[in-house]
Write a structure and sequence with these properties.
Keywords: Leucine-rich repeat, Nucleotide-binding, Plant defense, Repeat. InterPro entries: Rx_N (IPR041118). GO terms for molecular function: nucleotide binding. The protein is an all-alpha fold and 204 residues long. The chain has one domain. It is 80% helix and 0% strand. It contains eight helices and no strands. Helix 1 packs antiparallel against helix 2, helix 2 packs across helix 6 and helix 4 runs antiparallel to helix 6.
Amino acid sequence: MAQLFVGPIMTKIINTCFDYLEDQVRWQRGMKKELERLRENHPKIEAVVDYASSQEQITEKNSSLNDWLWQLRDAIDEADDVLDDLQYMKLKKQLSKNKKQRKVRSIMKFINKRVFKIVNRALKIDPNLKRLEEVVQKLDRVSAGVATFLHLVKDAKQEHQEQQLELYRARETGSLPKNDLIGRGKEKEFIDEVMLVSALQHQL
Protein backbone atom coordinates (compact mmCIF):
# COMPACT_ATOMS: atom_id res chain seq x y z
CA MET A 1 0.00 0.00 0.00
CA ALA A 2 2.93 2.31 0.64
CA GLN A 3 3.84 2.10 -3.04
CA LEU A 4 0.58 3.74 -4.14
CA PHE A 5 1.71 6.75 -6.17
CA VAL A 6 -1.44 8.86 -6.05
CA GLY A 7 0.03 12.16 -7.23
CA PRO A 8 1.09 11.43 -10.80
CA ILE A 9 -1.76 8.99 -11.50
CA MET A 10 -4.48 11.34 -10.23
CA THR A 11 -2.99 14.22 -12.22
CA LYS A 12 -2.93 12.06 -15.34
CA ILE A 13 -6.54 10.97 -14.80
CA ILE A 14 -7.82 14.49 -14.22
CA ASN A 15 -5.92 16.05 -17.14
CA THR A 16 -6.81 13.27 -19.59
CA CYS A 17 -10.47 13.45 -18.62
CA PHE A 18 -10.52 17.22 -19.11
CA ASP A 19 -8.86 16.81 -22.52
CA TYR A 20 -11.18 14.02 -23.63
CA LEU A 21 -14.36 15.73 -22.49
CA GLU A 22 -13.64 19.06 -24.16
CA ASP A 23 -15.40 18.00 -27.38
CA GLN A 24 -18.24 16.23 -25.62
CA VAL A 25 -21.64 17.86 -25.24
CA ARG A 26 -21.94 16.39 -21.78
CA TRP A 27 -18.84 18.37 -20.78
CA GLN A 28 -21.05 21.30 -19.91
CA ARG A 29 -22.76 19.35 -17.12
CA GLY A 30 -22.00 16.95 -14.27
CA MET A 31 -18.62 15.50 -15.13
CA LYS A 32 -16.96 18.89 -15.08
CA LYS A 33 -18.12 19.37 -11.49
CA GLU A 34 -16.88 15.93 -10.50
CA LEU A 35 -13.49 16.56 -12.09
CA GLU A 36 -13.25 19.93 -10.35
CA ARG A 37 -13.97 18.23 -7.01
CA LEU A 38 -11.29 15.65 -7.80
CA ARG A 39 -8.85 18.46 -8.56
CA GLU A 40 -9.73 20.14 -5.23
CA ASN A 41 -9.41 16.90 -3.25
CA HIS A 42 -6.19 15.83 -4.96
CA PRO A 43 -3.78 17.57 -2.52
CA LYS A 44 -5.80 16.32 0.46
CA ILE A 45 -5.76 12.76 -0.87
CA GLU A 46 -2.03 12.99 -1.46
CA ALA A 47 -1.45 14.23 2.10
CA VAL A 48 -3.50 11.40 3.64
CA VAL A 49 -1.83 8.74 1.48
CA ASP A 50 1.65 10.12 2.26
CA TYR A 51 0.81 10.11 5.96
CA ALA A 52 -0.58 6.56 5.78
CA SER A 53 2.45 5.26 3.92
CA SER A 54 4.83 6.79 6.46
CA GLN A 55 2.81 5.47 9.41
CA GLU A 56 2.23 1.81 8.51
CA GLN A 57 1.34 0.84 12.07
CA ILE A 58 -1.48 3.41 11.99
CA THR A 59 -3.05 1.90 8.87
CA GLU A 60 -2.93 -1.55 10.45
CA LYS A 61 -4.75 -0.28 13.54
CA ASN A 62 -7.17 2.01 11.69
CA SER A 63 -9.28 -0.35 9.59
CA SER A 64 -11.47 2.43 8.16
CA LEU A 65 -8.40 4.24 6.81
CA ASN A 66 -7.08 0.98 5.39
CA ASP A 67 -10.46 0.24 3.74
CA TRP A 68 -10.58 3.74 2.27
CA LEU A 69 -7.04 3.39 0.89
CA TRP A 70 -8.01 0.12 -0.82
CA GLN A 71 -11.15 1.71 -2.28
CA LEU A 72 -9.04 4.58 -3.56
CA ARG A 73 -6.54 2.19 -5.07
CA ASP A 74 -9.30 0.21 -6.81
CA ALA A 75 -10.90 3.39 -8.17
CA ILE A 76 -7.55 4.69 -9.43
CA ASP A 77 -6.69 1.35 -11.05
CA GLU A 78 -10.08 1.24 -12.76
CA ALA A 79 -9.73 4.82 -14.01
CA ASP A 80 -6.20 4.11 -15.22
CA ASP A 81 -7.48 1.08 -17.16
CA VAL A 82 -10.14 3.21 -18.85
CA LEU A 83 -7.54 5.84 -19.73
CA ASP A 84 -5.34 3.13 -21.25
CA ASP A 85 -8.31 1.99 -23.34
CA LEU A 86 -8.96 5.58 -24.43
CA GLN A 87 -5.32 5.98 -25.41
CA TYR A 88 -5.48 2.73 -27.38
CA MET A 89 -8.67 3.83 -29.17
CA LYS A 90 -7.10 7.20 -29.94
CA LEU A 91 -4.02 5.55 -31.45
CA LYS A 92 -6.19 3.09 -33.36
CA LYS A 93 -8.28 5.96 -34.78
CA GLN A 94 -5.13 7.83 -35.71
CA LEU A 95 -3.78 4.78 -37.52
CA SER A 96 -7.00 4.23 -39.45
CA LYS A 97 -7.19 7.95 -40.18
CA ASN A 98 -3.67 7.89 -41.58
CA LYS A 99 -4.55 4.90 -43.77
CA LYS A 100 -7.72 6.54 -45.00
CA GLN A 101 -5.96 9.79 -45.78
CA ARG A 102 -3.73 7.92 -48.18
CA LYS A 103 -6.76 6.82 -50.15
CA VAL A 104 -8.61 9.21 -52.32
CA ARG A 105 -12.00 9.87 -50.81
CA SER A 106 -14.95 11.68 -52.12
CA ILE A 107 -16.14 14.84 -50.45
CA MET A 108 -19.45 13.16 -49.71
CA LYS A 109 -17.84 10.49 -47.49
CA PHE A 110 -16.01 13.18 -45.58
CA ILE A 111 -19.19 15.18 -44.99
CA ASN A 112 -21.14 12.05 -43.99
CA LYS A 113 -18.51 11.05 -41.44
CA ARG A 114 -18.44 14.54 -39.94
CA VAL A 115 -22.21 14.67 -39.64
CA PHE A 116 -22.27 11.17 -38.12
CA LYS A 117 -19.60 12.14 -35.59
CA ILE A 118 -21.45 15.32 -34.59
CA VAL A 119 -24.75 13.43 -34.23
CA ASN A 120 -23.07 10.75 -32.11
CA ARG A 121 -21.62 13.35 -29.78
CA ALA A 122 -24.89 15.24 -29.60
CA LEU A 123 -26.74 12.03 -28.73
CA LYS A 124 -23.98 10.94 -26.32
CA ILE A 125 -23.49 7.59 -28.04
CA ASP A 126 -19.77 7.55 -27.34
CA PRO A 127 -19.19 4.22 -25.52
CA ASN A 128 -16.01 5.47 -23.88
CA LEU A 129 -17.84 8.40 -22.34
CA LYS A 130 -20.10 6.11 -20.32
CA ARG A 131 -17.15 4.11 -18.93
CA LEU A 132 -15.24 7.31 -18.24
CA GLU A 133 -18.25 8.79 -16.47
CA GLU A 134 -18.60 5.69 -14.26
CA VAL A 135 -14.96 5.66 -13.16
CA VAL A 136 -14.89 9.41 -12.55
CA GLN A 137 -18.03 9.11 -10.42
CA LYS A 138 -16.50 6.22 -8.46
CA LEU A 139 -13.27 8.13 -7.95
CA ASP A 140 -15.25 11.20 -6.89
CA ARG A 141 -17.25 9.16 -4.34
CA VAL A 142 -14.11 7.61 -2.89
CA SER A 143 -12.19 10.88 -2.82
CA ALA A 144 -15.03 12.55 -0.93
CA GLY A 145 -14.10 10.30 2.01
CA VAL A 146 -10.72 11.98 2.38
CA ALA A 147 -12.20 14.54 4.77
CA THR A 148 -12.71 11.77 7.32
CA PHE A 149 -8.97 11.19 7.59
CA LEU A 150 -7.60 14.74 7.31
CA HIS A 151 -7.55 15.04 11.10
CA LEU A 152 -4.88 12.31 11.18
CA VAL A 153 -2.61 14.40 8.99
CA LYS A 154 -3.28 17.56 11.02
CA ASP A 155 -2.63 15.72 14.29
CA ALA A 156 0.62 14.27 12.92
CA LYS A 157 1.79 17.71 11.78
CA GLN A 158 0.94 19.22 15.15
CA GLU A 159 2.74 16.40 16.97
CA HIS A 160 5.79 16.87 14.74
CA GLN A 161 5.81 20.62 15.43
CA GLU A 162 5.58 19.98 19.18
CA GLN A 163 8.50 17.55 18.98
CA GLN A 164 10.56 20.08 17.05
CA LEU A 165 9.73 22.78 19.60
CA GLU A 166 10.63 20.47 22.48
CA LEU A 167 13.92 19.57 20.82
CA TYR A 168 14.65 23.27 20.24
CA ARG A 169 13.95 24.08 23.89
CA ALA A 170 16.17 21.20 25.04
CA ARG A 171 19.01 22.53 22.91
CA GLU A 172 18.65 25.98 24.45
CA THR A 173 19.42 24.66 27.93
CA GLY A 174 21.98 22.01 27.15
CA SER A 175 24.07 20.62 24.37
CA LEU A 176 22.27 17.28 24.30
CA PRO A 177 18.70 16.28 25.05
CA LYS A 178 18.23 14.59 28.41
CA ASN A 179 18.24 10.80 28.17
CA ASP A 180 16.32 8.90 30.81
CA LEU A 181 17.26 5.28 31.29
CA ILE A 182 14.29 3.08 31.91
CA GLY A 183 14.41 -0.42 33.38
CA ARG A 184 17.34 -2.52 34.62
CA GLY A 185 17.33 -0.74 37.99
CA LYS A 186 18.20 -3.93 39.90
CA GLU A 187 21.09 -4.69 37.58
CA LYS A 188 22.42 -1.17 38.02
CA GLU A 189 22.27 -1.48 41.81
CA PHE A 190 24.02 -4.88 41.65
CA ILE A 191 26.84 -3.47 39.48
CA ASP A 192 27.21 -0.49 41.83
CA GLU A 193 27.53 -2.86 44.81
CA VAL A 194 30.08 -5.06 43.02
CA MET A 195 32.14 -2.01 42.08
CA LEU A 196 31.92 -0.64 45.62
CA VAL A 197 33.01 -3.97 47.15
CA SER A 198 35.80 -4.27 44.60
CA ALA A 199 37.01 -0.73 45.37
CA LEU A 200 36.93 -1.42 49.12
CA GLN A 201 38.93 -4.65 48.70
CA HIS A 202 41.62 -2.82 46.73
CA GLN A 203 41.90 -0.20 49.44
CA LEU A 204 42.52 -2.85 52.11
